[in-house]
Amino acid sequence: MTRISVTVDGATYADDVEPRMLLVHFLRERLGKTGTVVGCDTSNCGACTVHLDGRSVKSCNVLAVQADGSEVTTIEGLAHDGELHPMQAAFHECHALQCGYCTPGMIMQSIDLLNENPTPTEEEIRSGLEGNLCRCTGYHNIVRAVQTASGQQTSASATLEETAS
Amino acid sequence: MTVTEDRPDAARKEVGNDRRRKEDQRLITGRTRWTDNIQLTGMLHVAMVRSPFAHARITGIDTTEAKAMPNVVLVLTGEDVKDEQGSLPNAWPITPDQVTPDHPSIAVDRVAFAGEIVAVVIARSAAEARDAAELVDVDYEELPAALDLREAAAADSANGVLAHPALGTNKSAFWQFDSAGAGTGGAVDDAIAEAQRDGVVVTREFRQQRLIPAFMEPRSVVVDPTGEQMTVWSATQIPHILRFLFAAVLGINEAKIRVIAPDVGGGFGGKLQCTPEEFITIMAARRIGKPVKYTETRSESLMAAHHGRDQWQKITVAATKDGTVTGLKVDLLADLGAYVAIMGGGVPVLGAFIFNAIYKFPAYQFNCQTVLTNKTWTDAYRGAGRPEATFGIERIMDELANTLGMDPLELREKNWIRNDEFPFKTVTGMTYDSGDYEAATAKAKEMFGYDELRAEQKRRREAKDPVQLGIGVSTFTEMCGLAPSRVLGSLDYGAGGWESASVRMLATGKVEVVTGTTPHGQGHETAWSQIVADRLGVAFEDVEVLHGDTQIASKGMDTYGSRSLVVGGEALVKAADKVIEKARPIAAHLLEASVDDLEFKAGRFGVRGTDKGLAMAEVALATFAAHNLPDGIEPTLDSDATYDPVDFSFPHGTHLCAMEIDTETGGLTMRKYVCVDDIGTIINPLIVEGQVHGGLVQGIAQALWEEAVHDDAGTLVSASFVDYLVPTAADTISFETGNTFSPSTTNTLGAKGVGEAGTIASTPAVVNAVVDALRPFGVDDVRMPCTPERVWKAIHSHDGSGDAATEGAAAPHFDEADTADRTAGSDGPDNTTGQEGSL
User: Fold this and answer.
1) Which residue range forms the structural domain that includes residue A160?
2) Does some domain include residue B791?
3) What CATH number does the domain containing A119 carry?
4) Is residue A118 scored above 80 in pLDDT?
5) A6 and A73 inside one domain
6) Is residue B40 part of a domain?
7) Residues A11 and A53 in one domain
8) Do A68 and A15 belong to one domain?
9) Which of residues 66-105 of A touch B (CB under 8 A)?
10) Does residue B119 sit within a domain?
11) A102 and A52 within one domain
């Protein structure tokens, strides 16, 4: 067992963990941060994406002991005082989720993408989300959500009117 | 004739509005209730030991070491549970003589596919269970495995390999529909003979490769046996069906079982199953008396959760020289895998009613042979039988058009059911209630720029541009609203097709809606609220939709087959209407008016000719208080309805796809995709668009990327997301979608269903585009997935030899050499690598 101290969504936790324990399992099983989920076992799907010291990581690809002394933000730490993060609001507005399983990871990755490139093109958005799989949406509305959050598209209604008239 | 309306629902208050979803708040903030999130005091965890062999005899299992591990509570083998576990159910034996092997949850003495469970370890943590599972020592005596579908179909006890030797055959069932026999049309062989004399006959063989549903949330099950009732949480599409089957298979009193589907992360048919993992978790929990959880890994999911598609299709179309179709003959081989799953052979049989599609075939025959092999079992995957059928008919229509030198849309228009011919009884005996193929096609052509792209294609062909342009067409229909119970009965399906709903009026004027549908991404909480808000005249926000728990929603047939709105929505309308009728005499009494003088409008009972009235909420409160009700009236407005559909619904649409193909490398790029879907009345256009987008990508993925590949030993080599190519955002493009509206006449809402349309329609549109681009090279098929390698091979194996593969007569069915030459690529794993041909 190894002693670690990790700040997650603003609270600092101290715990003894097996060296082999993955960060995602630490978050889910020890801290009850079940908003972050596991979708695969090969680090392809990105459902477990969180921010580690401000950068997106797949938390299935990080050991809990590697997060010792670090700050982790999960999907549960984005909204403050009932106010959604603009990316969460954009996902809702643009219907960028259906079953919602990939959504935590997709939102965390999308925020990281805009942190790096505040006004990405559609192609840059698509390539920036390549490490996150979604089976429901066909990505169309996820791209719209990132565009909306970046201020490059007003809402999903605009798209609807363009195409469904 | 049916009426095509322009946004008929726009005037209504909620129905037709693009409401943002109620479900989203919890999903975007991580306050979710996935099955794997559940932690109960004293809960134990299951790990499975799975067979690495496709077919083997189990000669010994040594669990000593595993049992000795700290924190291991129980180890089970098939021998331990053989008297208890029964056989996993097949709910749809398609013929009375169907050969159905017993399907134990834990294999007892033989395994029939790689991934089958041979032992189970239960420990205090999932990690400890998995560690101990590694120590279970299983001795196998490997047996020859039946892997190739066509070889398996031809094998018998004397020749070839049997998936289950004791059965003496790999053939499970033969199912036929013949229009001459059914009295719904002519004899197809006569039509083909006539066309051979004076007309055109085109025969093709198509491969529907094996796919994996690949829902994002791995399956998970938690069983709590504490107390009188056993509670089962499962990541399932079918909690109600599971409750019945758990009781039936394990002999448990149904009233002692509660099944809950909490938040469920996608299904696409993949969670329409009654699984060994569920039965095992139940048996373990009952033995130990403590809560037990099993959550699969992604690799286990890809290997052991059921697969989809996997057919060989041989299709013959007969036509006159002017392109009027006169007959359609379909011969299918369908791979069931090692066991007959819950729908099993019913999946390809569903396709029987869709092969004839939107066309007026006067003669039709459908023959389907289901076959057992030593591979993962197959069952419903988004569309279930209809994508396979739509692919077959839309591909052969393109081949017929090419043979006749006609534009593929012109050929289709010549043969489709005209708008003024609805309702139309088809050659299968189905009655299509409404449709407007002209309107959908005209709109799609305009959005697509069809004529301009055809002109560009011509220019590129003439200039011998290395990048060729292909235009693919798919004018599909499908059947939704599964299903009238009598029809299901006539097809030997083991259950009915009704749906149930309850509307509960709370004293505060809020409304609880209980539905028997089980959403897992479809947005029922939002759409059902819209329907009830309009019906009862209450606020959208005041409606709460409850579902997915057999103790709350005691009756239901769950969510699959694009049935929820068409059947469940109609049940909801009927329940809401009953609430109004129960409220009416109470309102009249309170208003001191005659019932006949009341009208219910916008949520208010008004006395005609006066300004007197009562809102539904006021009537609800008065009913709750029950101080002043008319004599003989029960003090509740709550109402239930169970609705059995009178018929299927038939959404349709026109999908157009433009593919650019680099003929030097085989690289494929999707340039444009336009679809116009007619799904009748739309409740929420935002949700509908989302369903279409997601459906499109799943169908496109079949055309271009996805394939479950087994090696020569029967090992699934695409058993991780590294190898099974679920497309990413970088692989796909943005779509242009539109709608036309010819409301269904068989339900009050006018809805037709949209859950599977995108997947059903898009696969042939893409492959038709790929083949269209390669026509100058004499290519008339590319086997799916159309990888750059297969495209390149197709170009180089034809050398412009034209339509050599078009046959004047039907060739012997399923001739290996015949198709091997004609279709590019093989089933080998080499052909599935490389996603470089991104869109």
Assistant:
1) 86-164
2) yes
3) 1.10.150.120
4) yes
5) yes
6) no
7) yes
8) yes
9) 74-76, 78-79, 84, 88, 91-93, 95, 97-104
10) no
11) no
Q: What is the ipTM of this complex?
A: 0.96
Cβ A122–B738 below 8 Å, yes or no?
no
Which structural domain range is residue B603 located in? 498-643
Q: What is the pLDDT of residue B482?
A: 86
Is B656 found in the same domain as B722? yes
The identity of residue B451, as a single letter, is D
Query: Are both B474 and B568 inside the same structural domain?
Result: no
Query: Does residue B670 sit within a domain?
Result: yes
What parts of chain B have a pLDDT lower than 70?
1-12, 798-839
Instruction: Convert the pLDDT of each residue in B355-409 to its tens digit.
Output: 999 999 999 999 999 999 999 999 999 999 999 999 999 999 999 999 999 999 9
**Cα separation of B277 and B754, whole Å?**
31
> Which of B608, B643, B678 corresponds to the end of one domain?
B643
Among B587, B610, B643, where does a domain finish? B643
Same domain, B677 and B819: yes
- Among A2-6, A156-160, B533-537, the least confident range: A156-160
pLDDT over 70 percentage in chain A: 93
Overall number of domains in chain A: 2
Instruction: Answer yes or no: are the C-beta atoms of B156 and B169 closer than 8 Å.
Output: yes
Is there a single domain that holds both residue B639 and residue B666? Answer: no
Whether residue A118 is found in the same domain as residue A52: no
A136 in the same domain as A97: yes
B61's enclosing H/E stretch is strand B56-62
What's the pLDDT at B798? 60
* Boundary (domain end) residue, out of A77, A98, A125: A77
pLDDT at A68: 98
Of B32, B697, B728, which has the smallest distance from its Cβ to A100's Cβ?
B32
What pLDDT shows up at residue B726?
Answer: 97
> Are B218 and A142 within 8 A, CB to CB?
no
Query: CB A99 to CB B520 under 8 A?
Result: yes
Which residues in chain B are closer than 8 Å to A28, comparing Cβ atoms?
Answer: 37
Q: Is pLDDT above 70 for A46?
A: yes
pLDDT at A156: 53
Which residues are CB-neighbours of A87 under 8 A, at least 6 positions away?
Answer: A78, A107, A110, A111, A114, A145, A146, A149
Q: Which residues of B touch A50 (CB under 8 A)?
A: none
DSSP codes joined into one string, B527-587: HHHHHHHHHHT--GGGEEEE-SBTTTS-----S-TT-IIIIIIHHHHHHHHHHHHHHHHHH
Name the residue facing B734 among A95, A122, A129 (closest C-beta): A122
- Closest CA–CA distance from residue B680 to any residue of chain A (Å): 14
Structure tokens at A127: 């390539």
Q: For residue B212, how many C-alpha atoms fall within 13 Å in the half-sphere facing its CB?
A: 31
In eight-state DSSP terms, residue A26 is I
Domain end among A55, A77, A99: A77
pLDDT at A25: 98
- Is the same domain home to A90 and A73? no
Question: What one-character DSSP code corresponds to residue B218?
Answer: P
Q: Are A143 and B734 in contact (CB under 8 A)?
A: yes
* pLDDT at B13 (0 to 100): 86
- DSSP string for B162-215: -SSGGGSBSEEEEEEEEHHHHTSSB-HHHHHHHHHHHSEEEEEEEEEEEE----
Tell me the two tokens of residue B47.
């790990």
Closest Cβ opposite residue B217 in set A75, A97, A101: A101
Long-range contacts of B525-529 (CB under 8 A, 24+ apart): B525/B21, B525/B22, B525/B23, B526/B19, B526/B20, B526/B21, B526/B22, B526/B23, B526/B684, B526/B687, B527/B565, B527/B569, B527/B683, B527/B684, B527/B687, B528/B568, B528/B569, B528/B572, B529/B14, B529/B19, B529/B22
